Amino acid sequence: MAKSAASERRLRPELGWTACDAVAVAVAVCPHLITGSKEVFCDMELRGTLTRGMSVFDWNGLLKRPPNVNLVTSIDMEGLMAVMDASLEDA
What is the pTM of this model? Predict the structure, then answer.
């Protein structure tokens, strides 16, 4: 069963908060930070009644569509912090 980010934070407060935009930029610039990823098909739901503008991933290949994204599932957090710290040193 899928969990929301909010419920995950309640259950595991030690996980803290992750700035998704900063992570996206960091892994684009430093792909060695990626420790796990999965190629999946992804589409944007634009006409749904339950969602709008939501990324929908075919995790189990049920749609039989070729993967079109490489979704990062885990990163080297210590490496990310080092990259973030280094980026602030020159600021």
Answer: 0.69
